[in-house]
Amino acid sequence: MGDFLNSLLGPEAEELRLLARMSYLMIFMAVVTFFTLLFENVPYGRYSTTKFGFPVNVKLAWFVQELPAFVVPLFVVFWTSGAKLSQLPNQLLLLMYFCHYFQRSLIYPFLIRGGKSTPFASFAIAFVFCVYNGYLQGRYLSRYAEYPADWVTRPMFISGSVLWLVGFLINVHSDHILRNLRKPGETGYKIPFGGLFEYVSGANFLGEIIEWAGFALASQSVHSAAFAFFTLVVLSSRAVAHHRWYLEKFEDYPKSRKALIPFLF
Ligand SMILES: NC(=O)c1ccc[n+]([C@@H]2O[C@H](COP(=O)([O-])OP(=O)(O)OC[C@H]3O[C@@H](n4cnc5c(N)ncnc54)[C@H](OP(=O)(O)O)[C@@H]3O)[C@@H](O)[C@H]2O)c1
Q1: Is residue 173 lining ligand 1, measured as CB closer than 6 Å?
Q2: In this structure, are residues 122 and 62 in contact, taking their beta carbons and an 8 Å threshold?
Q3: Is there a domain that residue 255 lies in?
Q4: Per the domain annotation, does 13 fall within a domain?
Q5: Cβ atoms of 147 and 180 closer than 8 Å
Q6: Is the CB of residue 65 below 6 angstroms from any atom belonging to ligand 1?
């Protein structure tokens, strides 16, 4: 099975080039997305609209759209020959990636309270992105990424891993705060307080941006940098949009609170 899949994926040098091209394409798509988001918010959650397709139940949408980000690399790691899987840096980087997507695809969707339905187009784009990125990160780290034996003791890896963990904890904690703003059955919006929400409107987004920036720092590859850049573009735009939305909606919204970067922006 593994050999069959490897033969399908072609010779190593060719696939490595393909993975690099996929990363450059992701960077290009992030730039296109940046300009698109100057005119339109990503249409899900509070910006949901039927203009982008029929509504998909929010829990189902998050579960199905995020699952490939967990399952595709899992498949790649266990059913294709992962020549670099015995290396500690590769194992730790894959662990970070899987830890996030285990939470995001198998826990987060089922905890959502009163979330808005997701328009089909947003759901479909997120699904495709998760397949694409799951293959890109999983295949590169399990088969191709080469690190020196002492990589895990180097400052880049240690600081990147710490950033990843701090970002992950901020992200999960902030999503927890948002979720608990609603009692079961409620669907409206309230002002979030606590954690990094004391400083920024997009605390959950800031956590996720830090997380993938740390991952990119620890892995030092164009593949992880492309993912971190894409995340930065999408989530910084969403943080700015949410911040404006809160200021318009709530007269008593804390005036010192920024959109994404405490005290600055
Ligand atoms: N890596 C990436 O590129 C990427 C992209 C997108 C999202 N994400 C991550 O996915 C997670 C969810 O993203 P999101 O864009 O859905 O976040 P969000 O807009 O902050 O919403 C998160 C959840 O909290 C609810 N909520 C938000 N603000 C609320 C408020 N003031 N009062 C009551 N409920 C509130 C939302 O309900 P409604 O649905 O009713 O608004 C939704 O269920 C985040 O952790 C984010 O970092 C990652």
Answers
A1: no
A2: no
A3: no
A4: yes
A5: no
A6: no
